[in-house]
Amino acid sequence: VKVKIPFGNKYLDAIFSVPEKKPTYGVILTHGAGGDMNFPHLVSLAAYLASHGVLCLRFTCKGLNIAYRTKAFKTVVEYLKLSDDYKLLGVFLAGRSMGSRAAASVIRQLSQEGDDDFIQGLVCLSYPLHRPKLQSKLRDEDLFFIRCPVLFVSGSADEMCEKQLLEGVASRMKAPKKIHWIDKANHGMAVKGRTTDDVMEEINAQVFSWLRENIELEHK
User: Fold this and answer.
1) C-alpha angle 181/166/70, rounded to 5°?
2) CATH architecture classification, 2-219
3) For residue 219, what are the CA distances in angstroms to 88, 114, 154, 178?
4) Inter-CA distances, 93 with 85, 100, 124, 158, Å
5) Distance between CA atoms of residues 178 and 73, nearest Å
6) What is residue 218's predicted lDDT score, i.e. its pLDDT?
7) Residues 87-113 pLDDT 10s
């Protein structure tokens, strides 16, 4: 289902992937610095989640300014929260690369405003912890303010997220967290000798099983 979400004096293009049964939880998903919501990894994940009963709303927000991307993401969260078509108990925020930074930033802002009861968790695909070869400057400040569960899915050969550095950041986070490493994958999740579909199957299954664990924990 295609929708246009009002954002300032513009609109954000978005697409709902809707499960057959009435969903109780959803995932909001956005892209990295390049590309848009039709980036193949996002399309694949959205379809997988919907086929397993989780609503997925993915959206496009062009722009390389993290504050602008965060503002757009927040607008989409509000839109889904107030939606009459889908009455959800909660949502997980998810993004690829820069999109995951924006998602983390939204969760930090909402928790500081005391308005994060709708947010169930954060999924970071290829979180860009640092620029290539610039490991001294980490983009980790938002992660330390997050309290909801966090899943990182990163390539062990990601040039923007060195393995030991992410593990070090995760160990200092207060949130419940899990890191799933895609062996030998780079920032774009490409692995020599593996097809994109094969890699996506691994990622999609990991994301869904983590969501299911956290939804079940929520219900207990």
Assistant:
1) 100
2) 3-Layer(aba) Sandwich (3.40)
3) 14, 22, 28, 20
4) 19, 8, 9, 22
5) 23
6) 65
7) 899 999 999 999 999 999 999 999 888
